[in-house]
Amino acid sequence: MAGSSANAALAALPEIAKAGPAGTGGDAPVTARMAFTVNGERRELDLDLRTSLLDALREHLHLTGSKKGCDHGQCGACTMIVNGRRINGCLTLAVMHQGAEITTIEGLGTPDALHPLQAAFIRHDGYQCGYCTPGQICSGVAVLEEIRAGIPSHATGDLTRAPDVSEAEIRERMSGNICRCGAYSNIVEAMTAFAGDPSSRSQA
C-alpha cells in the first residue's frame, strides 16, 4: 500500500521536477530563467531550481551584504526585504520570487548616502563585529514599517489601537535577529532614535 502511494505521488510530480536514474543524464540540475527587481534594478538569472534566494544574491549577483550565518533561519543575518516584508533569504528559493521587489542592505544606503537607520546605528554603536548588522538594519527598517502600519506583535498589549514604538515592541519584533556580540541595547537605542526622527519617515 505504501509503495502504491509513493508511485502515485511520483506520477503527480511535474516532469520538470523528476530526475532520471544516475548516469543517464537525468540527474543533472534542473534550471529555469528567473527575473526579479533587486535594489531597483531588474535582474535575470538562469538558476538551479534548488538555489536559495540568499545564494542567488550572494553567489550569482555578488551582493554579499546579506550574510550567510546559520543557513537554517535561526540567526537573521540574511534578512532582506521582499515586497515590503522582511524574510530570511536562506529559507526561501529564488524561483518562488519571480517578479518580486527585493531590497538588500546595498539598496538601503551607500557609504556616501547612508540610510537614516544606518546612520543611527553608527551614532549609537549598534554593532561590534558587524557581521549581523546588514540583517539587523534590513529587519529594523521593516519592523518600524510594521509598527507604523499598525501590525501587532506578541508584545502589543492593546489590540484595539496601533502599537507604539516601544522598547518592548522593538525587542520582540527583532528577536529573530541574533547579535552574538550582544549589542542589543544599542540597537534598540538606534531604532528608537530613527523612529523618533520625522525626517526619516520618508526615507524608510
Explain how this protein is built.
This protein is 32% helix and 13% strand. The chain has 204 residues and is an alpha+beta fold. It has two domains: 30-107, Beta-grasp domain (Ubiquitin-like (UB roll), Roll), CATH 3.10.20.30; 112-203, [2Fe-2S]-binding domain (DNA polymerase, domain 1), CATH 1.10.150.120. The chain has a five-stranded mixed β-sheet with strand order 2-1-5-3-4, with helices on both faces. A hairpin with a 2-residue loop joins strand 1 (31-38) and strand 2. Helix 4 (116-123) crosses helix 7. The longest helix is centred in the C-terminal third of the chain and has 16 residues, at 133-148. The protein is globular and about 55 Å long. Mean pLDDT is 88; it is low at 12-22.
How many beta-strand runs?
Answer: 5
Radius of gyration: 20 Å
Provide the CATH topology of the largest domain. Answer: DNA polymerase, domain 1
Q: Biggest sheet, open or closed, and with what strands and sense?
A: 5 strands, mixed
Helix content: 25-40%
Shape: globular
Strand residue content? 5-15%
Would you list the SSEs in sequence order as H and E? HEEHEEEHHHHH
| Multimeric state | single chain
The secondary-structure class comes to: alpha+beta
Q: Architecture of the largest domain, according to CATH? A: Orthogonal Bundle
- So what's the CATH class of the largest domain? Mainly Alpha
Keywords: 2Fe-2S, Iron, Iron-sulfur, Metal-binding, Oxidoreductase
Domain 2Fe-2S ferredoxin-type: 32-108
EC number: 1.2.99.6
Organism: Methylobacterium nonmethylotrophicum
